[in-house]
């Protein structure tokens, strides 16, 4: 394993032949980013008291051939690239929420990233994501409640559930690629939550399209995200989302 001491060095060290799945990714296809951390080595004859060693940032080989986003790479991408972006979602629209515009950078960045990855003919509007967050958590990133799915929890801005995360991180599950793997408790981190939530929203678009056909919209996908697609009359939580999204139009 090659240990490199600086994030910029890791990016530069990635050879042109080491193709990245996206220009913002830190590591090439087949690897995921691990940040600097300490490792406790147990006692041995040579070191009877054990020792602590520091491992610098590196790109670790994935356990499967699928692309994986780690928590560390999500943080690194956010810090390096998202502050440079401009455009939607619109600010100053949802005036009833004190944190309404606080996470626009993360919404903007991850919407652009996943749109680039999937290249759907109808890209996801970031305003849909912002309205969905308002309806799910009222922009409170530490929201952590029972999900209604066994003992699981729904966490963070987009109320991503343990069940959803088990799908997003399953190397042998229903997703053919583009996995997200980190401890579920880290969903309380805003950018990690939005990354995972939007990834799941793209999966919901595929599911909604299988039910509704080619005319499926991102509003339909958001309703599928809530597990309410096809229910008539629309439940109150769907009506709230639709009202919030209408504020952006």
Task: Explain briefly what this protein structure is.
This protein has helices spanning 7-13, 71-81, 104-118, 126-137, 162-168, 190-212, 218-225, 236-246; strands at 31-34, 37-41, 51-55, 58-61, 68-70, 144-146, 153-155, 160-161, 179-181. By secondary structure, the chain is α+β, with helices and mostly antiparallel strands. The chain folds into 2 domains: 1-61, no CATH class; 64-246, Lysozyme.
Task: Give an overview in words.
The protein is an alpha+beta fold and 249 residues long. The protein has 2 domains: 1-61, no CATH class; 64-246, Lysozyme, CATH 1.10.530. Helix content is 38%, strand content 13%. The chain is built from 8 helices and 9 strands. It has helices at residues 7-13, 71-81, 104-118, 126-137, 162-168, 190-212, 218-225, 236-246; strands spanning 31-34, 37-41, 51-55, 58-61, 68-70, 144-146, 153-155, 160-161, 179-181. Helix 3 crosses helix 6 and helix 4 packs across helix 8. The radius of gyration is 20 Å and the shape is globular.
What is the topology, as strand order, of the major beta sheet? 6-7-8
Relative strand content: 5-15%
Helix content bin: 25-40%
What is the first-to-last residue Cα distance?
A: 51 Å
- For the secondary structure, the number of strands is 9
Order of helices and strands: HEEEEEHHHEEEHEHHH
Total helical segments: 8
Which structural category do the helix and sheet elements fall into?
alpha+beta
For the CA atoms, what is the radius of gyration? Answer: 20 Å
Q: What is the third-level CATH name, the topology of the largest domain? A: Lysozyme
Number of domains: 2
Instruction: Identify low-pLDDT runs.
Output: 1-5, 13-17
Mean pLDDT: 90
CATH domain class name of the largest domain: Mainly Alpha
């Amino acid at each position: 394993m090659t240990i490199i001491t600086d994030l910029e060095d890791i990016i530069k060290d990635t050879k042109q032949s080491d193709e990245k799945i996206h220009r913002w990714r830190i590591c090439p296809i087949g690897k995921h980013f691990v940040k600097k951390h300490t490792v406790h080595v147990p006692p041995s004859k040579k070191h009877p008291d054990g020792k602590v060693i520091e491992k610098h940032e590196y790109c670790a080989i994935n356990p499967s051939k699928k692309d994986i986003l780690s928590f560390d790479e999500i943080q690194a991408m956010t810090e390096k690239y998202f502050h440079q972006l401009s455009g939607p979602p619109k600010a100053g629209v949802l005036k009833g929420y004190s944190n309404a515009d606080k996470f626009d950078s993360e919404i903007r960045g991850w919407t652009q990233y996943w749109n680039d990855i999937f290249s759907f003919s109808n890209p996801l509007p970031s305003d849909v994501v912002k309205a969905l967050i308002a309806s799910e958590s009222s922009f409170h990133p530490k929201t952590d409640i029972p999900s209604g799915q066994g003992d699981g929890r729904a966490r963070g801005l987009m109320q991503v559930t343990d069940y959803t995360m088990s799908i997003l991180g399953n190397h042998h599950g229903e997703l053919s690629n583009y996995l997200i793997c980190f401890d579920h408790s880290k969903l309380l981190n805003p950018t990690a939550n939005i990354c995972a939530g939007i990834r799941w929203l793209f999966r919901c678009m595929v599911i909604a399209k299988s039910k509704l056909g080619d005319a499926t919209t991102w509003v339909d996908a958001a309703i599928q995200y809530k597990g309410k697609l096809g229910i008539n009359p629309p439940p109150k939580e769907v009506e709230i989302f639709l009202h919030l999204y209408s504020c952006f139009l």
